[in-house]
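Bumping with the actual sequence this time:
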Amino acid sequence: MADQGQQQPPPPPAPAFSLTPAYNQCVALNYNECRDAHVYYKGCEALEGDVYNGKGLPEFLARISNKANQFEAILTINGRNFLTNYADIAATDVRQHALAYQGQNDHRAQNSNMLYHCLSKSISTDIHTKVTTNVARYYLPVPTGPDPNDPVEHRYDGVCFLKAIIDETYSQGCSMDLRP
């Protein structure tokens, strides 16, 4: 018979409620875990529907929004939803926002990487060619340590990539709409 004085271990904490597996992800994904690797690969998949060819930006952004529950933290810039306020948020603000989370090496940097791959698979070759003329807009230098003399690594950032896509196509779409 077991020792009556021995205490039982406490029950495990209740899981946090979430509507989607990655939505409540506040810690970095562990790619050694199958479920986390699966979340990564699903996050990198192209958006549903046709590739974005520079026309129909609101529909493209709606498709991103449908997939973007897991990206919500990185798509909120200075308290504003980037998908609905894209024209009012400057590229410098997007870049500063991205550099802040990229340097933390947490789930937001991973979400940004997934968003980059998702968007890259979801745009036409023509749009991709236009956006890649200035890779520095979304290929960010990230310090590898706290010392300013530490080396940097470069990372593709999904939110900055989205801003570059919008900047390349939004003005194009506006100018095309203004032609007689």
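The tokens above came from a reply further down the thread. Helices lie at 34-44, 57-67, 82-85, 91-102, 107-120, 125-131, 158-178.
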